Amino acid sequence: MQEILSVRDLNVHFNTSTGVVKALNGISFQQTESQIYCVVGENGSGKSTLALAIMGLLPETAKIVSGSIKFQGVDLINSPPDVISRMRGSDISMVFQDARAALNPVLTIGKQLEEAISAHNTYGKQKVQSYSEEILSELGLSNPREILRSYPFDLSGGMCQRVMLAISLVNKPQLLIADEVTSALDVTLQAEVLDRLKTLCKDFGTAILFISHDFGVVAAMAHHVGVLYSGTLVESAPVVDLFSTPTHPYTSAMIEALPRLDEPDKKLISLRGKSPTASEVSRYCPFLGRCNKATVICRSEPRPLLSEIRLGHQVACYNPLCFVD
After folding, report:
1. Which entry of 195, 212, 214, 304 is 20 to 30 Å from 233 by CA?
2. Same structural domain for residues 230 and 243?
3. Which domain holds residue 129?
């Protein structure tokens, strides 16, 4: 399949009153069309920073100090702002984590959908109206005409999330970035939204960069998974390979901590210690202080880089749990 997104050696720093905070450290991955690539990690691991960097929406305090982000060969870091503006919302769209906060509280839903459509199309008013109703209906929202006249504060959190999804999909993007899109939804709505994303990927060839902290959701959604820890990508593998043969000690610990319906008596093993903050990141492996597999090389050499140990399976570890069969 054709490569649609390429991120190479991406480093993002934040300038704060207490000094430089290293939010992302050498992130590299590639995504192909029709692929759901899931980035999974704890809160504060840098997942949302990665999404904002790709969209070109980092705050003023943040700076991409090195690396590249390319979408279908277009340099998203160094291209002129007008080029990025034409692509954002059309070729690349994003669903933000807090849908209610992402929507404008003083504009109706209809006005916000209209802006998203008209920014990249020349449809007439009636076409925009009918298209807006159509996409809201496709996302399972009843009485779409009334919703278009409503304001965000008139809707529930789940409805706002579907509206945000509608805004991101109206222009049929080639890449959709979904940042914790199911975190505010109940289980039933979560399943419906995930099914919608899978259908979008399958039927229209849309690539989805799915960001989550929920390994269960990731197992159901992903084709390929990248595990992020303290701003570092520690493992990247096809989803079945990752869950059946986790190789980085952090990935293994996270999977061991998951309850399973087929193993009701399974003892859940918690991971000792806590993640270093972005301001505490050192030149060594970020997992060093919590790892029970650390050796002398881990304590003396710089942070290990991602290296392939099996076909399509990469790990950043000097002492991985499994080796090539």
Report:
1. 195
2. yes
3. 102-172
